[in-house]
């Protein structure tokens, strides 16, 4: 009597993760941004909160070159680093 399990009955279909998996930068298109970000991390004892601008620029480079899916930077946690559209940043205090 064989008690071996038969795993062939179920078909497994791998699904890529929603975020976090993207093509490697084989041609080094964003290498300068990556190096700047990594240098910042080393100089700040790997405190990533001090390197957010470099992180934003690196991710923007990857999106611009289709090395990752386009995503609004606000949704990636950079809302506070985004420039306000011209005209909306005017003062509302009358003088």
Spans of at least 5 consecutive residues whose pLDDT stays below 50 are: none
> How much strand content do the residues show?
under 5%
Radius of gyration in whole Å, from Cα?
22 Å
Number of helices: 3
Q: Give the CA-based shape.
A: extended
| Cα separation of the termini | 93 Å
How does this model look, in words?
The termini are far apart. The longest helix has 13 residues, at 31-43. Helix 1 packs antiparallel against helix 2. The protein is extended and about 55 Å long. The protein has a domain at 25-79. With 95 residues, it is mostly helical. Helix content is 33%, strand content 0%. The model has no long low-confidence stretch (mean pLDDT 80). It is found in: Cytoplasm. This is Cytochrome c oxidase assembly protein COX19. Belongs to the COX19 family. Residues 1-20 are annotated as: Disordered. Its main location: cytoplasm.
What is the topological layout?
Blueprint: H1 31-43, H2 52-64, H3 74-78
Helix pairs in contact: 1-2
Outline:
With 95 residues, the protein is an all-alpha fold. The protein has helices at 31-43, 52-64, 74-78.
Give me some keywords for this one.
extended, 95 residues, mainly alpha, single chain
């Amino acid at each position: 009597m064989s008690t071996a399990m038969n795993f062939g009955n179920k078909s497994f279909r791998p699904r890529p993760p929603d975020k976090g998996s993207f093509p490697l930068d084989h041609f080094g298109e964003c290498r300068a941004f990556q190096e700047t970000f990594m240098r910042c991390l080393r100089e700040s004892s790997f405190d990533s909160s001090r390197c957010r601008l470099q992180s934003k620029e690196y991710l923007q480079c990857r999106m611009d070159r289709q090395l990752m899916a386009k995503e609004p930077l606000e949704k990636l946690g950079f809302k506070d680093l985004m420039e306000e559209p011209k005209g909306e940043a005017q003062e509302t205090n009358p003088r």
